[in-house]
Amino acid sequence: MKSIALLILTNSLCATFALAINSAGSSAKLQLKYFDIRGAAETCRVLLALGGEEYVDARYEIDQATFQSPEFLEAKENGDLKMNLNRAPVLVIPDGRVIGQSKAIERYLARRLGLMGKTPEDEAIIDCIAEHCRDVKDAAARKGFSRFTKGKTDEEKAIARSEWFETEMPSMLDKIEASLPETSRSPGFSFGDAPTYGDVAIWALLRDCAPADLDDTTKASEKCIALNAIADQIASNPGVSKWLKERPETMF
Ligand SMILES: N[C@@H](CCC(=O)N[C@@H](CS)C(=O)NCC(=O)O)C(=O)O
Question: Which segments constitute the GST N-terminal domain (predicted)?
Fold first, then answer.
């Protein structure tokens, strides 16, 4: 039963991918190409859900045993990924041009979808909030406690993990929380009184981390009332909550 379900899922993902590839360059829709994981593309997908724009969600399947993706290798060989230096994600825009770098894609989508404020100054402040979230994620990665970290014992990883979640992450989140009164005009929004890219970045940081880190992240952020209200506001947006219910279940 499980293998039939997997086969159906695999076939439907292949169909999605084939549709995406066949329509490259000619589609009026945006086409986001990435692995079949949340990873570096999920903030883009959530921005699109929040902004209500339809797009082609082209996914390179990953073999769960080998972590290889023949579809990704083929795309690399075809030159589809040149604009991200042979990596994913890339976004193909309706005129056929390709944008690489996940953060550049996020900012482009946010601007396109009206989630970057009204002026260059608004945009810079919203971007600044999103960059705070990136700092937190980068600091966690540098701390090196994930199962992919090499050169550390399990005991060393456990120590790094508790230092991060008990002290360092709460301290960084407190600083972000303290900055919000400078930019927010209403509870539930990091900038002004409407959803922005910064809110999506906060949601991704607090709610869309690796499932194994969710409880510790929730605990580390428990005193951050404003940040949690923003994350809840994004999660309860109808487009986003529909996406969260319907998105493919993936390993990361
Ligand atoms: N700075 C780039 C990094 C892109 C990147 O490292 N992509 C990874 C997946 S998250 C990748 O394509 N890895 C496969 C490879 O490099 O062969 C971005 O944010 O888009």
Answer: 28-117
In whole angstroms, give the CA distance from residue 58 to residue 17.
Answer: 5
User: Whose C-alpha lies nearest to ligand 1, atom 12?
Assistant: 87
| 57 falls within a domain | yes
Decide: 13 in ligand 1 pocket, CB within 6 A: no
101 Cα: distance to centroid of ligand 1 (angstroms):
8
pLDDT tens per residue across span 200-237: 999 999 999 999 999 999 999 999 999 999 999 999 99
**157 and 202 fall within a common domain:** yes
- Domain of 84? 2-113
Statement to judge: residues 74 and 126 lie in one domain = no
The residues of the chain scoring below 70 in pLDDT are 1-27
**Binding site membership of 101 for ligand 1 (Cβ less than 6 Å):** yes
Residue 225: CATH number of its domain: 1.20.1050.10
Residue closest by Cα to atom 15 of ligand 1: 87
What's the pLDDT score for residue 2? 37
| Ligand 1 atom with least separation from CA of 105 | 20
Q: Are 124 and 232 within one domain? A: yes
Check pocket membership of 88 for ligand 1, CB cut-off 6 A: yes
- Flag whether 241 is in a domain: no
pLDDT at position 11 = 37
For ligand 1, mutation pick of 67, 71, 87, 105 (most atoms within 8 Å of CB): 87
Residues 143, 132: Cα–Cα separation, whole Å: 17
162 and 91 belong to one structural domain: no
Dist CA 71 CA 73 (whole Å):
5
3-class DSSP assignment, residue 32: strand
